[in-house]
Amino acid sequence: MNLKEALEGRRSVRRYSDRPVDREVIVSLLEAAETAPSAGNLRAREYYVVTSPELRSALSVAAFGQEHVARAPVVVVVCADPARSGMRYGDRGQLYSIQDAAAATTCLLLAAHDLGLGSCWIGAFDEMVARDILDLPGRLLPTAMVSIGWPDERPAPPPSRDMTEAIHWIEG
Ligand SMILES: Cc1cc2nc3c(=O)[nH]c(=O)nc-3n(C[C@H](O)[C@H](O)[C@H](O)COP(=O)(O)O)c2cc1C
């Protein structure tokens, strides 16, 4: 799969088969996530890999009942580490750490797609409940859950928009 095919073909997948995802495969996805750029190369991000059915169910509740969180065989919770970035960049580090985590999340989704896995970025969750479930250290900010599994659906592409709405040319 070339990059354009990967970018255009990736979809948010919310239905998964029962087939488990091997640990080495999960590790390869996290290695791909870590190829993402990072402010000052500080890598102000960490990953919690949840395969326990009980904890996935609890995370599904934290995600306001989103069922694919419980049904996916793997949920990766991507966390930003604002203090790590803040030590060098002060207040701006807060934003950088969130961008570090978001960049990694995008690479994780693309790597999953490249391997034929389905995945979905989940941003709608109660941060405090997720913190409690994972017993996160206070310094970490959970920014995204990613449900991952072998796909049991092939979603159609979402409607695209007219790019001229979003592009602002400032030409000399
Ligand atoms: C910041 C962010 C938060 C999102 N939160 C959720 C979510 O809570 N639940 C969900 O099912 N999808 C969520 N999505 C996935 C979007 O719904 C999806 O990317 C969008 O509809 C475009 O579809 P596509 O990913 O197939 O291109 C989120 C995506 C992003 C980037």
UniProtKB/TrEMBL annotation:
Q: Which Pfam families match?
A: Nitroreductase (PF00881)
Keywords, A to Z, come to: Flavoprotein, FMN, Oxidoreductase
Would you indicate the residue range of the signal peptide?
Answer: none
Q: Which organism is it from?
A: Methanothrix harundinacea
Q: Taxonomically, which superkingdom?
A: Archaea
Q: What is this protein called?
A: NADH dehydrogenase/NAD(P)H nitroreductase, putative
Cofactors, names only: FMN
Q: Which PANTHER family match?
A: NAD(P)H NITROREDUCTASE YDGI-RELATED, NITROREDUCTASE
Family membership noted in the UniProt record: Belongs to the nitroreductase family.
Does the keyword field hold Amino-acid biosynthesis?
A: no
- Transmembrane intervals: none
Q: Which GO terms describe its molecular function?
A: oxidoreductase activity
Which stretches make up the Nitroreductase domain?
64-150
